[in-house]
Amino acid sequence: MSDVATALNIVRGKISDAAQRSGRPADAVRLVLVTKTVSPERVRQAITAGQRDLGENKVQEGQGKAGALADLDPPPRWSMIGHLQTNKVKDVLSFADEVQSLDRLSLATALDRRLQQLGRSLDVLVQVNSSGEASKYGLTAQEVPAFLKELTAFPSLRPKGFMTLATFTADEAEVRRCFRLMRDIRDHALQDAPQGEALADLSMGMSGDYEWAIEEGATIVRVGQAVFGPRAVPDAHYWPGETTTR
After folding, report:
1. How many domains does the chain have?
2. pLDDT 10s digit of each residue in the chain, 246 long?
């Protein structure tokens, strides 16, 4: 068994335990494996170990890896989890089955226009800035209800819930506060938003806090380094133009 498969099994076990602590079965939580800066070969090891849901932060990197893994049958399911520029919509739709970072109407417009040209639809999550930090993208909690109403104008988009990044801190109480805020936003949306019960998903929790997120109600966790180890500088062979360490 590869080191990736071993680490993946450990993470799956922790997800299962945290789900049980929250009164849910393990399959109530979807693991999106974050492949940021990870080579296609190591990603392939995770897929061989049974992982089908993959997440990317950068469009160009995601395109490159999706192409490198195009021989797989069935193909993995890719989620765009990073900030998405409107001029990258065509590229992201060439590989992504889901966008978890919908945070403004201009992006919804661009996505819907391209999707209608393609004759397809797309699962999306609304990104909320639960920490209140200026460095993070996403709507405020107060902006969410009006935004959900406006999304009804885009028939190719299928809103499925919400995504957030909690405050980057070791303070468990603060991290859980962010997660509880998201759960409250989701619960109110289930009752009041036009999309109603379709908005069940909560994508929150990463390698350092995914167990807390599950205990607070996450249905999706985005985990990378807990499986692949610390990130290295990306290889330009796979991601031309990507030169910064992330």
Report:
1. 1
2. 789 999 999 999 999 999 999 999 999 999 999 999 999 999 999 999 999 999 999 999 999 999 999 999 999 999 999 999 999 999 999 999 999 999 999 999 999 999 999 999 999 999 999 999 999 999 999 999 999 999 999 999 999 999 999 999 999 999 999 999 999 999 999 999 999 999 999 999 999 999 999 999 999 999 999 999 987 654 433 333 333 222
Cβ(96)–Cβ(79) below 8 Å: yes
DSSP the chain: --HHHHHHHHHHHHHHHHHHHTTS-GGGSEEEEE-TT--HHHHHHHHHTT--EEEES-HHHHHHHHHHTTT-SSPPEEEE-S---GGGHHHHTTT-SEEEEE--HHHHHHHHHHHHHHT--EEEEEEB-SS--TTS-SB-GGGHHHHHHHGGG-TTEEEEEEE----SSS-HHHHHHHHHHHHHHHHHHHHHSTTGGG--EEE---TTTHHHHHHTT-SEEEE-HHHH-S--PPPTTTSTT--S--
Quick check: pTM over 0.90?
yes
Report the alpha-carbon distance of residue 2 to residue 203 in Å, rounded.
28
* Within a domain: 234: no
Q: What is the CATH number of the domain that holds 201?
A: 3.20.20.10
- Domain residue limits at 207: 3-228
In a domain, 240, yes or no: no
